[in-house]
Amino acid sequence: MFNTKLPTLNELPSTAQLLRSTIIAAIIACVLLVTVVMPSEYAIDPTGVGRALGLTQMGEVKIQLADEARADEVAAQTPTPPPAEAIAVAPTAPATSPSAPVEVIPAPEQPTAPEQAAGLQHEMSITLSPNQGAEVKLEMKQGAKVNYLWTANGGVVNYDTHGDPYNAPRDFYHSYGKGRSTAEDSGVLEAAFDGKHGWFWRNRTSKPVTVTLRTQGDYISIKRVI
Question: So where does this one cross the membrane (predicted)?
Answer without folding.
Answer: 18-38
